[in-house]
Specification:
With 254 residues, the chain is α+β, with helices and mostly antiparallel strands. Helices cover 52% and strands 14% of the residues. Strands 4-5-6-7 form a 4-stranded antiparallel beta sheet, with no helix packed on it. Strands 1-2-3 form a 3-stranded antiparallel beta sheet. Helix 6 crosses helix 7.
């Protein structure tokens, strides 16, 4: 296994790549040329690897060198990408850069804490998934099964309830109960403090409206009669139902 590349060696490679003739290059036998728009340009001759004794290897060397002009910057870019990814993963694992600078024992302890936190989150997700699964199963059940599940939900919540003779469900220690709504033809949740339905006012008949019109006409034309009709009967001199303490002194008459 080769030793890791040192920062100096990396910088040396980067400097040589920047100083070389711009690529991409292309080989033609043992000769190497620059390209323009993907076309080999004879005027951009870079060099050759002519080996009279081994022409095949000479051509392979030229092809390798031409390809390296593009491969080296691509590899350097990949190094940068991987280095950034490692830093990202370390940040997620250790939390911040300060943790990466501590001793390995502290790093291991921090990793254990991270793992424990992830397990706790996984447990919460498992419980949530279980609840959603139960709800899904209830929705898939028959109407009777869903009704039973609703009653059992009250039992699980510790709510004491009973069924009244008229069919509605009430709780002795709660103002909530379930009643059958005749208009909606559905069971509804109601509260004791809700206002009861006020019956609509009776619609006056044609005879009642005619009588009221006559009364208004008489009162308008004969205000004295209207005042007489509005007077308290026991204040009238024609009133004969006298009461002691109201019309007569309590001591009797003289």
């Amino acid at each position: 296994m080769s030793a890791p590349m040192t920062p100096d060696r990396e910088q040396e490679i980067r400097a040589r790549e920047q100083a070389a003739t711009p690529g991409p290059w292309q080989s033609d036998g043992a000769e190497i040329y620059g390209t323009l728009g993907g076309v080999l340009m004879i005027d951009l001759w870079v060099g050759e690897t002519l080996d009279i004794e081994n022409q095949q290897r000479s051509n392979a060397d030229a092809a390798f060198m031409a390809d390296a002009r593009s491969a080296v910057p691509e590899l350097l870019a990949e190094v940068d990408r991987l280095r950034a990814r490692v830093a990202e993963l370390e940040g997620e694992a250790y939390g911040d850069a300060a943790v990466r600078l501590v001793d390995p024992v502290s790093q291991i302890r921090h990793l254990h804490a991270c793992v424990a936190a992830q397990r706790s989150r996984a447990d919460v997700l498992d419980r949530l998934c279980g609840k959603y699964q139960e709800r899904a199963e209830l929705l898939e059940g028959s109407p009777w099964e869903r009704a039973v599940a609703g009653l059992n939900a009250l039992v699980d919540a510790g709510v004491a309830f009973h069924v009244e003779p008229d069919g509605h469900i009430s709780a002795p220690f709660s103002d909530e109960h379930i009643e059958w709504d005749l208009k909606a033809k559905r069971w509804v949740l109601t509260h004791d403090d809700e206002d009861e339905d006020v019956p609509p006012a009776p619609v006056p008949s044609a005879e009642d409206e005619a009588r009221a019109a006559v009364d208004r006409s008489v009162k308008a034309q004969f205000p004295a009669i209207a005042a007489f009709l509005a007077e308290d009967p026991h204040d009238s001199p024609l009133h004969h139902s006298y009461a002691v303490g109201r019309d007569l002194p309590e001591g009797g008459t003289q």
